[in-house]
Amino acid sequence: MPVRLQLPDNQGVLVAAEGAALSYRIGDGQWQDAGRNAALLPANITDVRVTDAGDTVTSIPVTS
Where do the structural domains in the chain lie, given as residue ranges? Predict the structure, then answer.
């Protein structure tokens, strides 16, 4: 399970999952690459996708 931290004052969402590829989307939009291991994402994201080293993909809804 990745770590998720909502930053105050609408600054964004910090997500981290060691060794995983991260991506995010807003609403029903396209998935955007966010790099590996950790990322600071826009405050209005709705979903985070985590792809671990074994290519297991987990989509996690983000609620405020």
Answer: 3-61
Judge whether residue 50 has pLDDT over 90.
Answer: yes
φ, ψ for residue 3 (rounded to 5)?
-90, 135
Find tokens 């297991």 and name the residue.
56
Cα 44–chain centre separation: 11
Residue 13: its pLDDT value, please? 92
Helix, coil or strand: residue 31? coil
CA-nearest of 14, 60, 63 to 34 is 14
| 3 CB-near residues (< 8 Å, 6+ apart) | 14, 15, 16, 17
- Asked whether the CA dihedral 28, 47, 57, 14 is positive or negative, the reply is positive
